[in-house]
Amino acid sequence: MTSARVFHLFALFAFLTACVPARKYEELNSQMAGLRAESETAMAKAREAEAAYSEQQGHVGDVDRRVKLLEQDTFTMGTSLRKMQSSMTRSTN
Question: Which string of DSSP letters, residue by residue, matches 7-63?
Answer without folding.
Answer: HHHHHHHHHHH-SS-HHHHHHHHHHHHHHHHHHHHHHHHHHHHHHHHHHHHHHHHHH
